[in-house]
TrEMBL record:
Residues given in the record as ATP binding sites: P103, V104, A105, G106, G107, M108, A109, G110, G111, S112, A113
NCBIfam families named in the record: ispE (TIGR00154), PRK03188.1 (NF002870)
Protein name listed in UniProt: 4-diphosphocytidyl-2-C-methyl-D-erythritol kinase
Species in which this protein is naturally found: Microbispora oryzae
Catalysed reactions, as listed in the record: 4-CDP-2-C-methyl-D-erythritol + ATP = 4-CDP-2-C-methyl-D-erythritol 2-phosphate + ADP + H(+)
Assigned EC number: 2.7.1.148
Amino acid sequence: MGGVTVRVPAKVNLQLAVGPLRDDGYHDLVNVFHAVSLFDEVTAAEPDRAGAADRPVRVRVEGEWAADVPASDDNLAVRAAAALAARAGRSYRADLLIRKTIPVAGGMAGGSADAAAALVACNELWGLGLPLPDLMEIGADIGSDVPFALLGGTAVGTGRGERLTALETSGVFHWVFALADGGLSTPRVYGECDRLRAEAGAAVPWPRVSEPLLAALREGDAPALGRTLSNDLQPAALALRPSLAATLRVGRDAGALGAIVSGSGPTCAFLAESAEHAGALAAGLKDAEGCRGAVTAFGPVPGAAPAG
């Protein structure tokens, strides 16, 4: 398949502070995103003439997680390409091929990453020349995590997470991701978070970024970063999937600098001292309860960009 191929990273949430439930059903967030070296690839190509008229944008999915990804108009990459064409005000067509490495429904924004990659690939394929801020604006209407997948690096997101400010970081951080056997629905996790909070009866504070976390990023201080990782959705994810507690415990006992559920889960993220330490952690996590495997990665890395 020819065309334009774009590589796009997964993300881990270093801090996810969830504010009170809003009238529109969303929550105000403070979300510190960190792009890591687990990548999907999306290729956009001009479609064959045969069968192109029925669906302007078609998609195929390959890779370990392909069976869990819809190859229909519900796919976020298809929706992103259609939104880009609508923004351009013309009828464009494309065949998309997604090569999946990022876990599906794993709290690492794999679907949003594919949407971001489709925006970049189709923008190039169709010769639109739209700048990054325009693509981020289109992406925000597709999903709250799409703008960060375009930006990459490390950034704090506010609002629903889509308003981004890049953060200063030093050095490289090494990670291990324990992949759970099965996924978790993001809306269900947020709903459980709201239920647990209502049950507790305490006032929900307005979300604020952690200053110690920002300092650890600026200084490249991995032990300090490990101590400041936080996720307000973690209690809800653990309530819905109790086996995650055992996974987190195995990683901590093996010397992880920090351990956290990534986003809405169920992927668990562990901060390591070095690449060698990450390899040892991954080996120890592969047999943890409810864990289908463990992979290593590093960050920060750039956002969606042409491969090659």
